[in-house]
Amino acid sequence: MAPTSGRRTAIVGVALSDCGRVDDATPYALHAQAARRALADAGLDRTVIDGVASAGLGTLAPAEVAEYLGLRPTWVDSTSVGGSTWEVLAAHAADAISAGHARAVLLVYGSTARADLRAGRRTGTLSFGARGPLQFEAPYGHTLIAKYAMAARRHMHAHGTTIEQLAEVAVQARANAAANPEAMFRDPITVEDVLAGPVIADPFTKLHCCIRSDGGAAVLLVAEELVPDCRTRPVWVLGAAEHVSHTAMSEWPDFTVSPAAVSGRLAFERAGVRPAEVDFAEIYDAFTYMTLVTLEDLGFCAKGEGGAFVEKGRLLVAGGELPVNTDGGGLSAQHPGMRGLFLLVEAVRQLRGEAGARQVRKRGGRLPELAVASGTGGWFCSSGTMVLGRG
Question: CA-to-CA distance for 376 and 382, rounded, in angstroms?
Answer without folding.
Answer: 6
